[in-house]
Amino acid sequence: MKTKNLNGYFNIVGSNIKKYRECRGLSQRQLSDKLALLGVTLYNSDISRIEQHTLFIRDFEQKAICKVLDITSEQLFENTDQYF
């Protein structure tokens, strides 16, 4: 089965996740721990790969990340037109 991607990117929100995580003063480990409290298992290495656009991100993971980072879905997808 061939893995689908967009011009080599497996997600388009990784940069925004990194931006807002750093704005909140959270490490990748801290974000991972907060997500675990919501029942979402993403290891800090997974978050690193998401931020590098090399890991798919599921819709429920996006929703949980928005909740933890206190951002909207619109903020998560801001400035992503560059990937198209």
Task: Give the helices and strands, then pairings.
Blueprint: H1 14-23, H2 28-37, H3 44-51, H4 59-69, H5 73-76
Helix pairs in contact: 2-3
As a percent range, the share of helical residues equals 40-55%
Average pLDDT, to the nearest integer? Answer: 96
First-last Cα distance: 24 Å
Total strands: the figure is: 0
Radius of gyration from CA coordinates: 12 Å
Shape: globular
The stretches of 5 or more residues where confidence is low (pLDDT under 50) are: none
Strand content: under 5%
Largest sheet: none
Q: What's the number of helices? A: 5
| H and E string | HHHHH
Class from helix and strand fractions:
mainly alpha
Overview of the structural elements:
The protein is mostly helical and 84 residues long. Helix content is 51%, strand content 0%. The protein is built from five helices and no strands. Helix 2 crosses helix 3 (44-51). The longest helix is centred in the last third of the chain and has 11 residues, at 59-69.
Please supply descriptive tags for the structure shown above.
0% strand; 84 residues; mainly alpha
Summarize this entry quickly.
The chain is an all-alpha fold and 84 residues long. It is built from 5 helices and no strands.
